[in-house]
Design brief:
Rossmann fold; 5-stranded parallel sheet; about 30% helix; alpha/beta; binds beta-D-glucopyranose; Immunoglobulin-like
Length: about 725
């Protein structure tokens, strides 16, 4: 009897399983679920999966477009400008219940440096040299995003950028490919968690593939002349590292790659990304990037633009509706093969399956107080801001303040600002959540009088506030002058012909200098600035970038000495705009002697190199030790340096390991960063930093078609101000 019952129940469960299509079976392998679903889809359903719509008010000022009404239920993705999880669930319900197959929508959004808890901008994050912290802030940002209904962020931006006139330098990790790779990987891991299907994971999107940082003259959306050598050597490596780390999606750029737009570039999108690197996620176009192929002069109309973008390897059309409108015809005309459509749809579905959207399509509704700005997120924002503020200058130990400082003149348009300090691309950030510099300083210096005056606006010509600022300065022991850029001056479509601050701000510095009081210049901006005129007038400079919601307390801690600054620049500050581009990994000059080829009118040295950043303590580096000075290419050299903190305060020091290859068939940069590490060193203690030189990884280089070459010979290792030679044979 018992046996019969068991047989019946097994049969029943088989029957139930048989009724559930494979693609809906949680336990079936993802690839099986994809092919099952694909076999059931009509052409129309497939095409819809390749379209991304927008919904609600697009508050990206560059992208203002008509609100999309009556969203088709079967769309592939939606840019979700709302932060309301209930609304998401309503839209998702339509997709799940009103379509034939119930394919969930993928909700994407620009979560760039935080969702509601806004962290420092990416260029600042890189100056922390603390990828672990960056990973943590991205995972917190992912949690806030998930709870708001977002599954996918258009981040990280890993475009190597060497022209600070380009506003988007603020969105990436600076001038070096390796640094972009390390921080890109950290953010991918932070967003995506251990696996995409974890409850608080979101999919990352690497952007803007590729070479966008090369925009000519720093002008956005323009031509970028990327040589094949630079493509492989400078622009592709961060992408390759992030693909290897499992990034789920990629966004194609607005730029041309030497005449072939990034969005119609079969070589980069298909041959490199998909064939060589075996990327199995999908590529989304940037906003309007498909349509732009017409404006860029490579397609005669939108239909041809759609065909070119798709056949080059762009699977999803962001917002243009071109795929939706023209693909049925293009397929019928055999201009797009069904096999390519099937591959593209599989890629989109793969991300959805991997995210677990088929099994858990809805957002859990959690009350708003538990969604955002949790103690842990704010603590991370504070830590990251502390570690990303760079002490650029500190003449005669102006900082930290000593006990003679009883009255501070706190001056400048940035002092009480809460709007600009959070930076661009912080759509859900609210200025009311931000702590101003004034608030932070007031909290830190309880027994000090703060004499505040705005002095001037960010730009314009109104000098009427100068007199009050000067009067306040005269009454005080020291001036803390908070200047910088509005948030709209960097980010997308925010190119500037000069990277100097507007004249009115420079004039304010000159007026205050006349008081004879020491000046601490605090700068909040999204790009390196031209400080050639200001630097000589001030005693100390703290670059705080756009620190997000928690800027005041970290800055105040640096001023008081509670925090010992540990940030270093991830991007060079040129002396003047005319020096652009200036970056540390330049190639050797043909006449590297007698200052030949230098500028005649100014120094050729930038004001602050990549890696510059001061501290309140002193670090003494011991001589570098190498485990061997001659090896063959399959061996390794262990190198170590011990760093002693000989000052009075604890600190965190980042050691940078550079190599150089003085003779090669393709001339190499004068030095290249291969590894960095930041460690805490207590006052009076020393710490050993180590690095392992692996010739095939660290000393090989790529040619213009991406082939890695290793050439034996002498090499140099650079650490701090030391340089040692070693030899590697075949
Ligand atoms: C930007 C992208 C962004 C997209 C979606 C575009 O204008 O270039 O970086 O992710 O808009 O908002």
């Amino acid at each position: 009897m018992k046996k019969i019952a068991i047989v019946c129940s097994v049969l029943l469960s088989h029957l139930i399983v048989a009724q559930v299509p494979v693609y809906k079976n949680k336990t079936a392998p993802v690839e099986k679920r994809i092919s099952d679903l694909l076999s059931k889809m009509t052409i129309e359903e497939k095409i819809l999966q390749l379209n991304q719509y927008t919904f609600g008010i697009n508050n990206n000022p560059n992208n203002i477009g008509p609100e999309v009404k009556g969203l088709p239920a079967g769309i592939g993705s939606l840019i979700y400008f709302s932060a309301d999880p209930v609304l998401r669930n309503t839209i998702q319900k339509k997709a799940m219940e009103e379509t034939r197959l119930g394919i969930p929508i993928l909700f994407g959004f620009d979560v760039i440096h935080g969702f509601r808890t806004v962290y420092p901008i990416s260029i600042a994050q890189a100056c922390s040299w603390n990828p672990e912290l960056v990973k943590l802030n991205c995972s917190e940002a992912a949690r806030e995003s998930v709870l708001s209904g977002v599954d996918w962020t258009f981040s990280p931006m890993i475009d190597v950028a060497r022209d600070p006139r380009w506003g988007r330098v603020s969105e990436g990790y600076g001038e070096d490919p390796y640094v972009n790779a390390v921080f890109g990987v950290a953010s991918v891991k932070g967003y995506q968690g251990k696996k995409l299907s974890d409850p608080f994971s979101i999919a990352a999107c690497l952007k803007h593939f590729v070479g966008y940082g090369m925009s000519e003259g720093g002008r956005d959306y323009r031509f970028s002349d990327v040589s094949a050598q630079s493509l492989w050597e400078t622009y592709l490596p961060p992408y390759q590292a992030c693909i290897d780390a499992g990034a789920a999606t990629v966004m194609s750029g607005f730029n041309d790659i030497s005449g072939v737009p990034a969005t119609a570039n079969h070589y980069t999108l298909t041959e490199i990304l998909k064939k060589r690197w075996k990327f199995n996620g999908f590529v989304v176009s940037d906003w309007n990037a498909v349509k732009q192929l017409v404006w860029q002069g490579v397609a005669k109309d939108e239909k041809e633009a759609g065909q070119k973008a798709f056949m080059a390897g762009v699977e999803m059309d962001m917002k243009d509706n071109i795929y939706f409108e023209h693909f049925a015809a293009l397929i019928a005309e055999k201009k797009i093969p069904m096999s390519a459509i099937n591959d593209a749809v599989s890629r989109v579905l793969r991300v959805k399956f991997n995210l677990g959207l088929f099994d858990n399509p809805y957002t859990e509704i959690v009350e708003e107080q538990s969604r955002y700005l949790q103690a842990r997120s704010k603590e991370l924002a504070t830590n990251l801001a502390e570690e990303s503020m760079v002490l650029l200058k500190n003449k005669s130990n102006t900082l930290p303040f000593n006990s003679n400082v009883k009255k501070i003149a706190l001056i400048g348009p940035m002092a009480k600002d809460k709007e600009n300090i959070i930076g661009a691309w912080s759509f859900n950030g609210k200025s009311k959540d931000a702590e101003s510099l004034f608030e932070g300083i007031q909290k830190e210096f309880k027994n000090v009088t703060i004499n505040y005056a705005v002095g001037c606006d960010f730009d314009g010509t109104n000098e009427s506030g100068f007199a009050e600022a000067v009067a306040k300065a005269k009454e005080s022991d020291i001036i803390v002058l908070c200047l910088g850029e509005k948030k709209t001056w960097s980010g997308e479509n925010a190119s500037r012909s000069t990277i100097a601050l507007p004249e009115i701000q420079e004039k304010l510095v000159e007026e205050l200098k006349k008081t004879g009081k020491p000046i601490v210049l605090v700068l909040s901006n999204g790009r390196p600035l031209e400080l050639v005129r200001l630097e000589p007038l001030v005693d100390a400079i703290v670059e705080i970038w756009q620190p997000g919601v928690a800027g005041g307390t970290p800055l105040a801690g640096i001023l008081s000495g509670r925090i010992n600054p540990s940030a270093k620049l991830a991007i060079t500050f040129p002396l003047t705009t005319g020096q652009i581009p200036t970056y540390y990994s330049i190639r050797q000059s043909a006449r590297p002697f007698d200052k030949q080829g230098d500028y005649q009118d100014i120094s050729t040295e930038p004001l602050y190199w990549f890696g510059h950043g001061l501290s309140y303590t002193k670090y003494d580096y011991s001589p570098i030790k190498l485990s061997a000075t001659k090896i063959n290419k399959n061996q390794k050299i262990m190198v170590e340096v011990s760093v002693a903190n000989t000052g009075k305060v604890d600190g965190k020091e980042t050691v940078f390991w550079y190599v150089s290859d003085p003779v090669a068939s393709i001339s190499r940069p004068i030095k290249e960063l291969k590894f960095f590490e930041k460690k805490e060193i207590k006052s009076g203690k020393k710490i050993i930093y180590t690095f392992q030189i692996e010739p095939m990884r660290d000393l090989s280089f790529t040619d213009a078609i991406g082939k890695r070459l290793f050439e034996s010979g002498d090499f140099y290792l650079y650490v701090n101000d030391q340089k040692v030679k070693f030899e590697v044979t075949e």
